[in-house]
Predict the 3D structure of the following.
Amino acid sequence: MQGPFVSAPMAGVSSPAFRLMARRAGASLVYTEMVSAVGLVRGHKLTLDLCQVEPRERPLALQLFGADPEIMAQAARLVAQMPVDVVDVNLGCPAKKIRRQGAGSALLDQPALAAEIVEAVARASQAPVTVKLRLGFKSDQLEEILPGILKAGAAAVCLHARTAKQGFAGAADWGAIARLKSWCPVPVIGNGDVRGGAQAVEMLRQTGCDGVMIGRAALGNPWIFERAQARLQGREPRRVPAGERRAALWEHMELARLHGGPNQAMHFARQFMMWYSKGQPESAAYRRQAGRAQELASLISLTGQYFDRLEELEPAEQAPAAWEAAS
Ligand SMILES: Cc1cc2nc3c(=O)[nH]c(=O)nc-3n(C[C@H](O)[C@H](O)[C@H](O)COP(=O)(O)O)c2cc1C
């Protein structure tokens, strides 16, 4: 990995377009969203679509979820035919629909089965196998959950430092990442609540973790990886000009269209426009109008006008905007 900052798996978000933007901005590893092992083994089209990878995105981790070791192994054998560098096992998803299948964070209550799954995937896989998990269901149970999983062959552990019960509530417990790092024999990737480049470096320093995974803060903000890398090297991050922000938005939309087809163009256009304008000057009125637009053409035109305005507002000097200076 070139650098410690990695882009998180996010269902409905970490598409090839999102991953390419993150890689280009300096993420050292990108993840697919979680992929159903059952869907893959049965050859469901929507599941297979999630496994499309472009060589430019690599290194890439494909994340599998499932509850049955044999099906997970079959899925891993299929993944072995794909251009994938790491196979990650999801042991943390708190969504009811996943837990009901006995997968994701349901496996935190079944450490022996979780270890069996990791072992089956490691046997079937040519790439290293890693796990992404939460602290436990209600409390930090990592010292009970992880030893079997490590013995089964997990090559690294990514910890989203919340319990499954917490969902996204409360603050991520970075102290738990430090505790895990103090005894875990394989690399630890810390995750949870990193909002800017400075905070990403802070997580490395506070916890001693080997890598930092960034999720929500990278929506419409691939530059967070560049900013984190600059901070790590003791450099002041550069200011991202409005023109570059606009170009990234158009490119993200174009990549999404190329990979996902035109059917959901309106949905994605609105989603990306919201992401890329978040926190920008005078964005509230634009975001309200964009939220109401019915036609793609009017959405694009509104967006063009807004970014023209952003360029007008841009200070001539290269001082970072206030929100950027803090990240
Ligand atoms: C929309 C969304 C989808 C997510 N999908 C997945 C997923 O497919 N697999 C997974 O392991 N975690 C998933 N997560 C959790 C993130 O990978 C990450 O652990 C979490 O957002 C905390 O990191 P953050 O504070 O940097 O966002 C998802 C999170 C969000 C917001």
About this structure: Strands lie at 5-7, 29-31, 35-36, 60-65, 86-91, 129-134, 157-160, 188-191, 211-214. The first strand starts at residue 5 and ends at 7.
